């Protein structure tokens, strides 16, 4: 292993950048995170943490830092705009299937937990450091901030979001994130005290549950935050034009979009005072996320922003960071080189991200279906709803084994490749597959020498004692 510790720089302190910082620091590298803002933080809207990333919060101890502000709801209900129950999912069943919970949390609470975890892992967090320029060669990467401060790294990760400076420098001719549909989002938070005081009938619905009302061309999503004291309100609707940038909208016009929907949901929307339409931007596939030297690489929205119909935008960025931590750990242990690690990251993550982008499109299309398509959708889940109505404890198991709910965003059995995924395990497997591919298998012992030789190199380089009984002893 090189005598100097691998130094990794991260440009951008969002969810993906912090996840990468934690994972890479845990792998044994030195990590410096540069954040443009004067304070590390996030806006306070809600976010969902499914099993593919809640497993990371558990492993890293972030769940304990956030505490009661991580909420596991009791039910996930999907209603028609006319109040008919269309689908229901039990998150406790999902936790049994995946091994990890489905949490909802405020973005700023999650961000604070990740930030504190990064600090505890020794990550150097430097705020007020907007990167202005980038120079990269085979041996190092140098960035200069707007204040004129220079930093030199062995590897730079661009996790600086949709308007990524790093992407623009690396790929000046690459496509930029674009609005791929007419769907716009509206987001806000209300206190339960205000909701129950002004809409008392809401108590019958909002019982530590996540509730979605889906209708022609739009949907409403409500779920609890902040240890159950706040209600997250997310609505989406198809406009009459492609929404490319945030736009102001008249409050009365916004409420009119849902004028024929469930009366309780409509009364809750009467309480919100936000009127800004947010575009749902998507970044077209890129041929590569890295420079020619494989020591500058993109992560998260800088590489693959997606629509939010699968609630996987931040989760995918966190997966990127965890995967990078896994392969960079092997660079630290001198198992593979840095360029090999980045190539594995791109080879493994790029097709998975594209699949997620497509799943998000499909999920949104299903939920906002109209006419005959909506009728067929509702008929498909009718047996599931009837099973719940008859108080069958495990309704999904009473249905044919081929059944998969069309409500993809929350049901792991419908999208196991997404919600069962373990980025750290995938990174380890990617490295093992790569090492096996580098040398032939011994026809007598059936051992791939590449893995065996690399294992001995790690043992010898780290001073590990192997006892005569074959067990690994303490370091020398």
From TrEMBL:
SUPFAM superfamilies: FAD-linked reductases, C-terminal domain, FAD/NAD(P)-binding domain. Belongs to the paxM FAD-dependent monooxygenase family. This is FAD-binding domain-containing protein. The keyword Oxidoreductase applies. Residues 6-356 form the FAD-binding domain. InterPro entries: FAD-bd, FAD-dep_Monooxygenase_BioMet, FAD/NAD-bd_sf. Keywords: FAD, Flavoprotein, Monooxygenase, Oxidoreductase. Pfam families: FAD_binding_3. One of its GO terms (molecular function) is monooxygenase activity. PANTHER family: MONOOXYGENASE, PUTATIVE (AFU_ORTHOLOGUE AFUA_2G01950)-RELATED.
């Amino acid at each position: 292993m090189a005598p100097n510790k691998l130094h990794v720089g991260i440009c951008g302190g969002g969810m993906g950048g912090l996840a990468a910082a934690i994972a890479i620091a845990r792998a044994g590298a030195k990590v410096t995170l540069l954040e443009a803002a004067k304070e590390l933080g996030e806006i306070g809207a809600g976010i969902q943490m499914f099993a593919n990333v809640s497993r990371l919060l558990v492993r890293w101890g972030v769940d304990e830092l956030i505490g009661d502000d991580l909420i596991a709801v009791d039910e996930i209900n999907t209603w028609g705009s006319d109040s008919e129950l269309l689908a229901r999912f039990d998150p406790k069943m999902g936790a049994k299937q995946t091994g990890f919970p489905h949490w909802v949390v405020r973005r700023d609470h999650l961000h604070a937990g990740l930030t504190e975890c990064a600090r505890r892992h020794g990550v150097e967090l430097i705020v007020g450091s907007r990167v202005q320029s980038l120079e990269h060669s085979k041996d190092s990467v140098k960035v200069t901030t707007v204040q004129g401060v220079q930093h030199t790294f062995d590897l730079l990760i661009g996790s600086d979001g949709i308007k990524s400076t790093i992407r623009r420098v690396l790929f000046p001719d690459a496509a930029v994130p674009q609005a791929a549909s007419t769907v716009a989002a509206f987001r806000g938070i209300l206190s339960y005290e205000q909701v129950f005081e002004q809409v008392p009938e809401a108590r019958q619905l909002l019982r530590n549950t996540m509730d979605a009302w889906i209708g022609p061309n739009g949907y409403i999503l409500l779920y609890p935050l902040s240890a159950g004291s706040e209600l997250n309100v997310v609505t989406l609707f198809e406009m009459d034009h492609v929404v490319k940038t945030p736009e102001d909208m008249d409050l009365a016009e916004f409420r009119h979009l849902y004028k024929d929907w469930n009366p309780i949901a409509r009364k809750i929307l009467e309480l919100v005072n936000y009127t800004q339409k947010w575009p749902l931007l998507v970044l077209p596939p890129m041929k590569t996320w890295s420079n020619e030297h494989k020591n500058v690489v993109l992560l998260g929205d800088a590489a693959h922003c997606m629509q939010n119909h699968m609630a996987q935008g931040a989760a995918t960025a966190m997966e990127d960071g965890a995967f990078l931590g896994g392969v960079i750990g092997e660079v630290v242990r001198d198992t593979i080189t840095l360029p090999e690690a980045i190539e594995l990251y791109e080879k493994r993550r790029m097709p998975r991200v594209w699949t997620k982008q497509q799943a998000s499109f499909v999920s949104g299309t299903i939920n906002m279906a109209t006419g005959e398509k909506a009728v067929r959708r509702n008929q498909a889940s009718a047996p599931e709803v009837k099973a719940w109505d008859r108080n069958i404890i495990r309704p999904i198991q009473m249905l044919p084994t081929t059944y998969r709910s069309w409500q993809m965003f929350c049901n792991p059995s419908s999208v196991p490749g997404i919600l069962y995924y373990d980025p750290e395990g995938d990174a380890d497997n990617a490295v093992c597959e790569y090492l096996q591919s580098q040398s032939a298998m011994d026809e007598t012992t059936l051992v791939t020498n590449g893995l065996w030789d690399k294992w001995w190199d790690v043992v010898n380089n780290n001073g590990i004692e192997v006892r005569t009984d074959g067990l690994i002893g303490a370091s020398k």
